[in-house]
Amino acid sequence: MAITSDHLVGLAVGVGTAAACYYLYKKNQSRVDDWLRQQGINVPAGSGKEYSAMNLEELVLEKERLEDLIAEREMTDATETAPEQPEAAAS
Length: 91
Description:
Number of helices: 3
Distance between the termini: 76 Å
Structural class: mainly alpha
Number of strands: 0
Mean pLDDT: 87
Low-confidence stretches: none
Largest sheet: none
């Protein structure tokens, strides 16, 4: 099946529609997410705040949260990659 001009027009319309819907969603994200939650759809709540708009206390709290996550990830990776120790032979 050859690609015709109808296919290309359909592709252009689809991409344009998707871009317009994404723009409208981002512009009204909080209202749309609230409405989806009311409908019973689990929408993860992001921080939604720009780091440049946070005050010093909020930035420090975010830094501590990230440091905790990093430490947890390092601990998990260390335990997963550690070679198993053979049991000591009874002598």
